Amino acid sequence: xxxxxxxxxxxxxxxxxxxxxxxxxxxxxxxxxxxxxxxxxxxxxxxxxxxxxxxxxxxxxxxxxxxxxxxxxxxxxxxxxxxxxxxxxxxxxxxxxxxxxxxxxxxxxxxxxxxxxxxxxxxxxxxxxxxxxxxxxxxxxxxxxxxxxxxxxxxxxxxxxxxxxxxxxxxxxxxxxxxxxxxxxxxxxxxxxxxxxxxxxxxxxxxxxxxxxxxxxxxxxxxxxxxxxxxxxxxxxxxxxxxxxxxxxxxxxxxxxxxxxxxxxxxxxxxxxxxxxxxxxxxxxx
Length: 286
Fold this sequence. Notes:
single chain, mainly alpha, 3-stranded antiparallel sheet, about 5% strand
């Protein structure tokens, strides 16, 4: 790990940035033994660690909130119930400010997104060597525990949001209305000939803008969390540089962890708000 003299700095970084990947190799189906073999597995490879941690954290969210709901009382709330009620009220207020349509699913979905993404981001505060070291006793050589540093996870969530955008756009406006929204704006004209000239330009602009929504949504979360993870890894390398450098690295890690709490919360909030805003736009019928 950080103090392992058999690893160079680049090998240490590469090790911590490599997922536990399952896929097809020249020897059949199995786990990749290095980053190059993982890359050669192609599109059908599965990042088992990212998928496992994201599903596990989703279950943690569901169980915690179910626990709070089962024990909710009309009297003086417990500390945990009070915390959950604050979260629900905060998300509900944000949805009321950002969403202008009528859909009972938006607020629960926004709460799920916010808490789930926050829990995934929160894993970045666990020291980078702890869980990979413990997993090594089970013969697992790679283990990335922050799902939001995997573009497959963030873009997967963004594509799910994109699917809802398309679904509600067609449901609210109809297929003709949705196509008309793409083809007849931002440039319009009363003359049908001029309007026909504008249609290809409008389609290009609107389709690019439409496709940019899921990519920007997923890549923003991935980029910020990946950068934060990289800083933690670079700080962890300082522990192998002696007592003085290690002590300085400990101070840096503490400072960055405190600052990172703001980042992980802000990124979860941004992902939630943009999702609500995009779905509100999908519900607007011109």
